[in-house]
Amino acid sequence: MATRKSSRRDFIKLAAASAVAAGSTPTAASATKAEVLRPPPRKTVAPSDTLGIATIGMGIIGMYDTDTALEVPGTELVAVADCYDGRLQRTKEYYGEDVATTRDYREILARSDVDAILLCTPDHWHARIAIEAMEAGKAVYCEKPMVHNLDEGPAMIDAQRRTGQVLIVGSQFSSSILYDKARDLYQAGAIGQVNMVEASYNRNSALGAWQYSIPPDASTETIDWDTFQGDAPTRPFDPKRFFWWRGYRDYGTGVAGDLFVHLFTGIHHTLGSHGPTSVVAMGGLRFWKDGRDMPDVTLGLFGYPETENHAEFTLSLQSNFADGSGGGRLFRFIGDEGVMTVQGGSLTLSSTPRRRPPDQAIFEGYNSVRTFSEAQKQAFMDAYREKYPMPDPAATSQESEFEVPNGYDDRLDHFINFFDAIRNGTPVHQDAVYGYRAAAPSLLCNASLFDGKIHQWDPEAMRVRS
Question: pTM (2 decimals)?
Answer without folding.
Answer: 0.89
